[in-house]
Amino acid sequence: MAMEMRLPVARKPLSESVGRDTKKHLVVPGDTITTDTGFMRGHGTYMGEEKLIASVAGSVERVNKLICVKALKTRYNGEVGDIVVGRITEVQQKRWKVETNSRLDSVLLLSSMNLPGGELRRRSAEDELAMRGFLQEVDLISAEVQAVFSDGAVSLHTRSLKYGKLGQGVLVQVSPSLVKRQKTHFHDLPCGASVILGNNGFIWIYPTPEHKEEDAGGFTANLEPVSLADREVISRLRNCIVLLVTQRVMLYDTSILYCYEASLPHQIKDLLKPEIMEEVVMETRQRLLEQEG
Amino acid sequence: AGGRCSGSWRAMSPAYVPFLPQIRGSRARALPDRALVNCQYSSATFSTGERKRRPHGDRKSCEMGLQLRQTFEAAILTQLHPRSQIDIYVQVLQADGGTYAACVNAATLAVLDAGVPMRDFVCACSAGFVDSTALADLSHVEEAAGGPQLALALLPASGQIALLEMDARLHEDHLESVLEAAARAARDVHTLLDRVVRQHVREASVLLGD
């Protein structure tokens, strides 16, 4: 069986292919941002000896009197109304602990979870005992952020029929800063699969369901076998997303779709090779620029 | 994962911070007002001239882990992450003297990459005193010669010392010159790290667009 091997080679800077320089003020920890004491310090800065000093490596953002430094790579910081995809790590007394790529585990209270059938009633002791029947460890769910606690932990809820346990599909973990904020994060792509872009960087790709189930509330996992064509579409989408992430392109439905279309001439397994990656991403960026301008 | 970096000094060591703080099973050890910093040092069996039998768990690894922990507790702003834990794992691939310094430099880059807020870079270098000259960045042969050795970890912008360690006898008259040599070398390392980090940030910033 023939195998391909590559030798390590110095990576050429990707920014050359984009061809422009940034106008932002970039800092590293220890850099003085300003000596003016009139500014309020935000995230990523600290006050030392009358000067405002950066504590992470990133770009400085200024909003009126507030200065903060946005780091390149951070954990997910929850905000109310965000859609997240998470994995259950623990089943506790009246809640589940969900891992959402943030600093502390998120919490899904039993009272914030939809009961099957969509009924609205007080959760009883039997519901507590049956918790494991709804969601177990290592299940994946989609949920919305309800509240943020003072220490940064996030409280989730699945109080709509479109949230709930996720069935068959592929999870891609990316950095939260690469997911663009949009009106809706549930997309049905015309190529034949659907995607949920979680704000926390977890992206779920799954085959588009034939008909929308109205009453299940997302509990019954659809375990029917997925056809080969659907599987190929999902694999190609997953590779496209990984591609876009390595080249630091913002992820939203249009960019994923353009990347998918640009990748069609290549084989799925070739998509992760550096030369093909650059080619596909360049084409995607070009189409995105045309679409904006 | 969180932050990864590969140093290429005399001692090569990849370090990684397995993504920012998160509460682990040891809930009892969580501090209510700040983050716990946990450092683990291990050296590959092929790192030294003779093959090492026990890569981790021996006394040197524990001591090195402790020293790294002290260094980074001084540099990381732990108040910002209460009840969390920051893990730093360092593994030495090739040891030719100056392992502590290489570990600190590699771990600094890894912590930076993970986005953990720090006061400043932590740059370290070793120094020694041989034949009435102060030497910086000792190699394995120079360390084995038996002269006094000093390990210095510095926060370059403010000039504050994070860790200063020496376990030999040195006359206090010579201390100044040896310290000066180590500080100068650490600052040189800082210039290098600074340049690399800035380039990386600029590249990422350009790609993301304005």
Catalogue the unreliable spans of chain A.
Answer: none
Largest sheet of chain A: 5 strands, mixed, barrel
User: In the residues of chain B, how many domains can be counted?
Assistant: 1
Q: State the helicity of chain A in percent bands.
A: 10-25%
Identify the quaternary structure here: heterodimer
Strand/helix succession of chain A: HEEEEEEEEEEHHEEEEEEEHHH
CATH architecture of chain B: 2-Layer Sandwich
Taking Cα atoms only, what radius of gyration of chain B do you get, to the nearest Å? 18 Å
Major β-sheet annotation of chain B: 4 strands, mixed
The most extensive interface, with participating residues per chain, is: A-B, 41 and 41 residues
Folded structure, characterized:
The complex is a heterodimer of chains A (293) and B (210). Chain A is an alpha+beta fold and 293 residues long. In chain A, 21% of the residues lie in helices and 27% in strands. Chain A is built from six helices and 17 strands. Chain A has helices at 15-18, 125-129, 131-134, 228-246, 253-263, 274-292, and strands spanning 26-27, 32-34, 40-41, 45-48, 51-54, 58-63, 66-71, 83-91, 95-99, 106-109, 140-148, 154-157, 164-165, 170-173, 186-188, 193-197, 202-207. In chain A, the strands form four sheets. Chain A has a five-stranded mixed barrel with strand order 8-9-10-12-11. In chain A, strands 1-6-7-3 form a four-stranded mixed beta sheet, with no helix packed on it. In chain A, strands 14-17-16-15 form a four-stranded antiparallel beta sheet, covered by helices on one side. Chain A is flat. Chain A starts with 14 loop residues before the first helix and ends with a helix. The model of chain A has no long low-confidence stretch (mean pLDDT 83). Chain B has 210 residues and is α+β, with helices and mostly antiparallel strands. Chain B has one domain: Ribosomal Protein S5, domain 2 (2-Layer Sandwich), CATH 3.30.230. Chain B is 36% helix and 24% strand. Chain B has helices at residues 59-75, 99-114, 140-144, 172-208, and strands at residues 3-6, 14-17, 36-43, 85-92, 123-130, 133-136, 149-155, 160-166. Chain B has a four-stranded mixed beta sheet. Chain B has a four-stranded antiparallel beta sheet with strand order 6-5-7-8, sandwiched between helices. In chain B, helix 1 (59-75) packs across helix 2 (99-114). The A-B interface holds A 13-15, 18, 20-24, 26, 28-32, 44, 46, 48-49, 53, 55-59, 71-75, 101, 103-105, 151, 177-178, 247-250 and B 2-3, 19-23, 77, 81-84, 112-121, 155-158, 194, 197-210.
